[in-house]
What we know:
14% strand
Amino acid sequence: MRAGAFALSLVVATLAVVSDASTQRVLFFGDSITSCSGLNKEFTQGYLSYRRPLWTLAKEQGWSQCMSWVGSRSGCNARLDRHLGSDKMFPQRHDAYFGRPLSKALEEIGAVLDQRPDVVVVCLGINDLVLAPSKATDRMIFAALEKNYGRLLNQLLPPGTAPSQHSAGLRRRVVVLTLPPLKEELARKRRIKRAATLLPVADAALTAAIERLDQRQRALVTLVNTSTGFDAAEMLYDGLHPNDGGEQHLAKLVAPALRSAVAVAAPECGA
Length: 271
């Protein structure tokens, strides 16, 4: 695990079991790391997000048929879609876009839940550090992150509520995925360089938000540490976004947690 406890951001997988256990509706909720990472500085290579190798792994391991990926968006954005074309090798639906901070995600979470997903995978938090005011102290940044992480978790796992009506008597589950380390030396923008130095602040804020959940909520939270084995010097193309190797590494770390979440409703899809 990277020094400084949990890495900055949040990927949350939320499970509410439906009566049709054979197919779980999975929605990816996040920012550019989820929608697509972008283009390298030469505009010769595009990165599509860890969702693509994650789907490949699920197919190879025999559990892709247990999921249907849903969301209000598809592709990346107009600029990248023109460059990359439409990749049909993995499901295109998601709810993620460039530059989304936690505060914006909270405003839009209703639309995500309206999709009635069984599993929601959330990767958020980096933009809160990138966009933090230059005069904001570590204490101020910590307080804002802890508040918003806590609000997000409580939206996904409301405290003290009964199981969802469309579940088979089971509550949602949440998998919190930390963001891999940033590489300050590779960053081309000063704001990203600063964000790299703020990772320990975000780690502490995320930890505090999880600890503030009630006992029932905490029992439904599983943390996946994506800094495990992640070589930032080799797996990032701009100091922030994963390259192909980084996306494949993230997919390998996410796959067991997502498969376990899906398998609660569909045991035949478990490892």
